[in-house]
Amino acid sequence: MVDSAVVVRPAVARDVKPIAELWEALVDMHHALDAQLPQAVEGGAAQYARRIEDQLGNPMARVLVADHDGRVIGYVLGVVVDLLPDMFAQEPSGFLADIYVDERYRGGGVGRELVEHLSQWFADHHIRYFEWHVASQNRDAFDFWESLGGRPVMVRMRASVPISRIRP
What CATH number does the domain containing 159 carry? Predict the structure, then answer.
């Protein structure tokens, strides 16, 4: 059960900076799990903040925050996507682009609440399913998503190109 002091609500302009700080923590967490995952560049959080600010007015995107006594402790970003309708017979779907909850508030249902609210927003837009990416080394994330009914659909893989093949 989520602490009653935690409220999930749509993000507003004043939330952009704290969301960007959480994004930076998300990127750092992923890089700590797997050094081949990218680190944020200098100024990356500011750039992410601008992108989040742009999404606040986008009717095909939803940014939600988990607010604990006026402090943003988590966020989720979801968008409606319609992938190449001229090539694929696929209905529009949702994409959960980012989700992060401050480590101090994990395990209390905050992430679940963020996903439930985003899922309702997708349903309100007649979206029947949504997808997301999970870092392969993030076992906690796999457990979290499986507890919400998530299942693998397609696995993204990576292979290194031998350095001897790369021409200057």
Answer: 3.40.630.30
Integer distance in angstroms from the first to the last C-alpha of the chain? 56
Q: What is the pLDDT of residues 67-113, one digit of tens each?
A: 999 999 999 999 998 766 667 667 789 999 999 999 999 999 999 99
Quote helix, strand, coil % in the chain, to nearest 5: 40, 20, 40
Q: Which residues pair with 77 in a beta bridge?
A: 63, 98
In a domain, 96, yes or no: yes
CA distance 117 to 111: 10
Alpha-helix residue ranges (DSSP H) falling in the chain? 16-33, 44-56, 110-124, 139-147
Q: Which phi and psi angles does 144 have, rounded to 5°?
A: -60, -50
Say what the pTM is.
0.88
Q: Is the dihedral of CA 59, 63, 65, 70 positive or negative?
A: negative
Domain of 126, in residue numbers:
6-165
Reported as half-sphere exposure (CB side, CA atoms, 13 A), residue 78 has a value of 26
Q: Is residue 1 part of a domain?
A: no
